[in-house]
Amino acid sequence: MGRLMGRRGLVAVVMAAAVALLASGVASAHVTVKPSSAPAGGFEILSFSVPNEKEDANTVTLEVELPTKTPIAFVSVKPMPGWTIAVERTTLAKPVKAEGGEITEAVSKITWTATDGGLEPGQFDLFTISAGPLPTKAKKLEFKTLQTYSDGDVVRWIQPTAKGAPEPEFPIPTLTITKESSEHGH
């Protein structure tokens, strides 16, 4: 009987460890922007890595807000099979100087909507844009993101991460702006 209880105890410990490991994997699978840092003044390919964290619904819409206080002058969106893309532009309160003149409007929101089922449970995808020049007077760019599931649930990736504080449950995807590079790609 003691040996049987020992095996049951071992099985319980292994199962508990497996559940904890799975739970921590799900909890750390947030919407993020890749790369996580880029040089000021440059052009960058930015990909929003989006995991489907639900077991019973598909991700069917992704909305990404681009900052307008520190706008990006030029933004283009990579096409994605199975998704429509809507781009919203906003008139800037203060025009931005760019090559060839001033920019008075900037992309403020991009919405990807699934036309073919979306991201199924256990899947992820990269929603990609080309953006630049990145602001030279900002230390970071935050991209408020809403992820909508086929069951109507909306996950709001909008919580800022405070220095020295634990990561929030739904952190905002953030791009750290580094020192300006001597090479600016277009």
Quick synopsis:
With 186 residues, the chain is mainly β. It is built from one helix and twelve strands, in the order αββββββββββββ.
In round numbers, the mean pLDDT is 85
Helix/sheet category:
mainly beta
Total helical segments? 1
Shape estimate = globular
Q: Oligomeric state of the chains?
A: single chain
Give the C-alpha Rg: 21 Å
The major beta sheet can be summarized as:
5 strands, antiparallel
The overall strand count is 12
Write the layout of secondary structure elements.
Elements: H1 2-28, E1 32-34, E2 37-39, E3 44-51, E4 59-65, E5 74-77, E6 83-98, E7 101-114, E8 124-132, E9 140-142, E10 145-149, E11 154-157, E12 174-178
Parallel strand pairs: 2-12
Antiparallel strand pairs: 1-3, 3-8, 4-7, 4-10, 5-8, 6-7, 9-12, 10-11
Describe this structure in words.
The structure is a single chain. With 186 residues, the chain is mainly β. It is globular and about 50 Å long. The N and C termini lie far apart (72 Å). The chain has one helix spanning 2-28, and strands at 32-34, 37-39, 44-51, 59-65, 74-77, 83-98, 101-114, 124-132, 140-142, 145-149, 154-157, 174-178. The chain has 1 helix and 12 strands. A hairpin with a 2-residue loop joins strand 6 and strand 7. The strands form 3 sheets. Strands 6-7-4-10-11 form a 5-stranded antiparallel beta sheet, with no helix packed on it. Strands 1-3-8-5 form a 4-stranded antiparallel beta sheet, with no helix packed on it. The chain has a 3-stranded mixed beta sheet with strand order 2-12-9, with no helix packed on it.
